[in-house]
Design goal:
mainly alpha; 143 residues; single chain
Length: 143
């Protein structure tokens, strides 16, 4: 019974190791970490530059900052608006990144689809060889 449990545990660990060390899982982990850092950068951009420079002057008449703007009792519209701007900036950055990657892939596909132009010297040699073959056939066919 104990051997069966150890064998099953080893098999499970081997399967987990194979799964965890696949390229896709590692790439996903790196993407999540980079995405978290990018999210912090975008949040800082929104909180420290965009909102104070654009929205706070509009709210200066009410005397409140953009994050403290509320509607009714406890509805934090300022915080929500900041999150929406964060999302829009991240979505725009991802759109531009994906669009650039698609264009790069299209260029690669177009380059792969076009056969390279033949070397002019090789074309001339092939024509000469074909002409010599035809001439040899004509001369051999005469009595």
């Amino acid at each position: 019974m104990a051997r069966r449990v150890r064998s099953a545990a080893r098999g499970f660990l081997r399967d987990f190791q194979a799964f965890a060390l696949k390229g896709n899982v590692i790439d996903l982990a790196v993407a999540v970490i980079v995405g978290g850092a990018f999210s912090k950068i975008v949040s800082s951009l929104v909180e420290d530059l965009v909102m104070p420079g654009i929205i706070n002057p509009l709210l200066a008449q009410t005397g409140t900052g953009w994050r403290e703007l509320t509607i009714g009792p406890g509805i934090k519209i300022g915080s929500f608006f900041g999150s929406v701007v964060d999302f829009l900036i991240i979505a725009l950055a991802l759109f531009l990144l994906i669009r650039g990657l698609e264009r790069f892939k299209q260029r690669e596909a177009a380059q792969e689809a076009e056969p390279p132009a033949p070397d002019p010297a090789v074309v001339v040699q092939q024509r000469l060889a074909d002409t010599l073959d035809r001439l040899t056939n004509v001369l051999n066919s005469r009595p």
